[in-house]
Amino acid sequence: MHDWSSPQSFLVTSISAPRVLLDGRLAGPATVVVDDGVVAEVLDGASPEADITLDRGVLTPGLVDIQTNGCFGVDFITASEQDWHLVSDRLPSTGVTAFQPTYITAPMQTLLSGLDRAGAVIDSLRGAQAMGVHLEGPFLSPQRPGVHDPQYLVDPTPDRIDAVLATLAAEHTRDLVTMVTLAPELEGGLEAVRRLAGAGIRVSLGHTDALAAQVLAAADAGATLITHIFNAQRPLNHREPGVPGAALYDARFTCGLIADLHHVAPEICTLVWRAAAGRVALVTDAIAAAGMPPGEYELSGIKVFLGEDGVPRDAAGVIGGSALTLDRAIRNLVGIGLDEASVLSAATRVPADALGRPDLGRIAPGTRADLAWFDDGYRPLRTWVAGRSVFEAGSGAQAPNGPHRLAREHQPA
């Protein structure tokens, strides 16, 4: 991975803004001083000597997406070197500066080959930076497969977990796997949680038919996240809380939420927000269709069609990921009346913390100077990665805004 603390050809830069997201609240005006790619200090007030003066909108940490299968026509599991660079260069147009590429269920050899290709390229990315790879499968329940191909779902046996852990020591994939989604009720599930968590891999529960008691047992074993809450999991019931009930009850869990307002209705988004205040991480679960026009795309070899309603579905009509971008998720939730600062935190600090990355997702001395400037309607205007300007609206790299991307998007007041 990149060593952002090593000397680089960065100049000291200061950016003043009328509103800045600091410590989970919108404050300002303030001036952010960047030195060699990290935030050196944050000053009260708009410094008249600032190198860059933002006259409107809000300056936030760069957005952090910890679950994305692909975008801009690229499916990560089969991505070429050119594909990786394309995504890295274009994601900042959505305000994203750090992302965790996700590989869904496939034969183990396909997953391992995908890891080899990723390991060979991600250190050279110029734009948004990859944080590591999330394996969403194949250790998932055949009772809750979603769009995952059931023929490749397997139990997390010791030898299969050995194969995952071996990637942590391999030359090209060292420390590359940062998160695994699994179903804890499968044979060997809890032991897999213990081994993965013990190796420093974040364990998320998803595509699972687990009872609430099994979810809590997985938390005891080291699981800390829930993959796309309410989707592809045993539902909430007043007598059996299921996966969502246990996740909302137990503060050890960070809850991933796909806020396209299709996967989870606006009313339920609001309930999740209230019940799990401060521990909701906005995710896109985006596929290759994100940022692209309606048509046919692939998700780990599965044909998925993006319709005019902006929702990708397989041939059986099952939703397969999303065409969401993280900036649009912010606009959606602000548009239904949720607090702006908490929504922004859910796309920055909360997901960064969920992966144990205190250097990301916040504007504070010592953190990587990943910054995003949004207009008052939360559309990206400019993005910096480690102090380098990597996107500027109007420069030719425009944020995707395809027709009917999300039919239910609520515009901010």
UniProtKB/TrEMBL annotation:
Location of the Amidohydrolase-related domain: 58-388
EC number, as in UniProt: 3.5.1.25
Root EC class: hydrolase
Pfam family, one: Amidohydro_1
Residue ranges crossing the lipid bilayer per the database entry: none
An example Gene Ontology molecular-function term: N-acetylglucosamine-6-phosphate deacetylase activity
InterPro entries hit by this protein: Amidohydro-rel, GlcNAc_6-P_deAcase, Metal-dep_hydrolase_composite, Metal_Hydrolase
UniProt entry keywords in alphabetical sequence: Carbohydrate metabolism, Hydrolase, Metal-binding
Region of interest called Disordered, as start-end residue ranges on this chain: 393-413
Family affiliation: Belongs to the metallo-dependent hydrolases superfamily. NagA family.
Cross-referenced NCBIfam families: nagA
Protein name, UniProt field: N-acetylglucosamine-6-phosphate deacetylase
Organism: Catenulispora pinistramenti
Organism phylogeny: Bacteria, Bacillati, Actinomycetota, Actinomycetes, Catenulisporales
